[in-house]
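Lab notebook page, bench 4
Experiment: in silico fold of construct C2
Operator: M.H.
Input chain length: 201 residues
Purpose: comparison with the prior construct
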Amino acid sequence: REAIANLEKAVKVKREVPGLYVILSSLYEEEKDIPGAERILKEGMLLLPQNVDLYYSLGVLYEKTNRFEESIHQMRTLLKIDPDHADALNFIGYSYADRGINLGEAEKMIQKALQLKPGNGYMIDSLGWTYFKQNRIDLAIQYLKEAASLLPNDGTVAEHLGDAYLKAGRSQEALESYQRALKLNPASGSLPKKIDDLPKK
């Protein structure tokens, strides 16, 4: 808590430095003090209402604490300030795709994000996952394979690719992707069941 106390003092002196609010919020979050994390970001936003980093951080905090509508609202507010904020575009697009909603809008937002940040593995994964949710499986596999090669240590991307292979009836490749995902994310609750449920030869 000493680091938090020191940063609280620093924020009172350097009120115009957005990074201090973001760091302090993350320290509160590490301490499981979500109200504190939210409070400090909102304090920063009152002083710096055009700073996109504060909106983005608050949107991510809401997403982590299962406040979906509020997280999307923060990201949309951010996009009114900066319509070309690639991470916010990707955040909304992936959030929609993961829930299987607004898939057309999700696709457009992620495509725009990728135009702004070409070759970004996380955004390529988002687009592939959107295609998966749209049941465009060949396209999904194409993009998810690329994402998996760019992000070889990301278990979620490997699991996405496994899901796409399974949907395409390519169970051996699905198994390999799931096993890689489980190695990267051994605490996964979903992967052991997916592996057990694969068609047996």
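Observations: The longest helix spans residues 34-47. The chain has a mean pLDDT of 94.
Next step: discuss at group meeting.
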